[in-house]
């Protein structure tokens, strides 16, 4: 071996060992550059669990396990050291939790737990709307109230509901028992939201007290908490619009589609914010490992963001379908009634109102956006077959495509079956699952930190 080569190897080993020491402080396990053909790769689950699965234990779910039989002698040891140097060097790596692996794991579990709570909250909200329970409680207090506890209290609540336009026009003659059902649905939705506030705030204070939360993470979580508190206010603002007398006696009372869309969009933003933050806590560095995989991830990243925006806009357009009850019109597919495009799609004045209030236009938009989402995701999946990708990225792209196809299928079934509660809520949960996957995809194809890129470069030239 030439003296210059020995010198260069010595310098790599020195750098790698000092990085190994620092990796102990930064909880990143060593990967191997040789891992591609010899690794065991696991992705656990999709849906809300996907984030948690990828996240918990940082590299435990998206884990590259080195085959010990393959690791032979000095060269393998060296490559492992070089790799750990690449991954664990921390300059430029922004950790959100710096107090140790246990703290990182606890904070991760808490944030993913909250995002699963938000997921269930959205589904419960959907069921509340689909069972027409949302207008049963005619007042609101930020702190909440006890439910009626005696028959007299129930009668008082029922009397208040009897003054509402929904009772007068839709539910006239409803029995007390039926009223109790819709009341409990709405009550559960509201209390589940308040429960989330507690589940969020108490551990948050505890983790701050323990010094687990960095300033960056604290600010981010505080912003999400503020959005959560605002969500309650938006919810009541939405319900109030459904308690007002409709403009004409022939119109059924329902909440404003704009307010419903605002409420649902805000829930999506909170969910996505929590998920992204949880992933950033447990997976501060994307699974890059080799230069080819980093280039592959960059190619996916170019498409992942616009694609996610498209899925997000499709979901918001879905909220307008729900808000206008547009799922109960044109219950045919692919044609809308006898035509591909209904005649009245631009019948409202001013023109822009058609996109938010005209049943035909709102449903047509949702169909077009959903088709565009599915085609774009399929296009990315098709193109990415030729790219050199980390198995995690490949698996997430395929899962996203599968989920988009399932979501479109459930959407069409919901429409053909005149929006039953079961399919309507499955379609809503499907939208959140698809959003989970696109968030996961964007997070996994992020550009690695400058220190990781630098280390990879130096390994390649050594
Ligand atoms: C990428 C695909 C899709 C996404 C992300 C998506 C998303 C959504 C969302 C978020 C809602 C609101 C749910 C609620 O508040 O209850 C919704 C409603 C709806 N979507 Fe989709 N959707 C997709 C595809 C489709 C397709 C292809 C159809 C049928 C042609 C469809 C039909 C409906 C109907 C009928 C509703 C109203 C359900 C209700 O009243 O609760 N969706 N969609």
TrEMBL record:
Cofactor(s) this protein cannot do without: heme b
Reaction it catalyzes: Fe(II)-heme o + 2 A + H2O = Fe(II)-heme a + 2 AH2
Keywords from the UniProt entry: Heme biosynthesis, Iron, Membrane, Metal-binding, Oxidoreductase, Transmembrane, Transmembrane helix
Topology relative to the membrane: Multi-pass membrane protein
Transmembrane annotation, as ranges: 106-127, 191-209, 221-239, 259-282, 303-323, 366-384, 396-419, 425-445
This protein's record includes keyword Membrane: yes
InterPro entries: COX15/CtaA_fam, HemeA_Synthase_type2
Name of the protein: Cytochrome c oxidase assembly protein COX15
Record organism: Stephania japonica
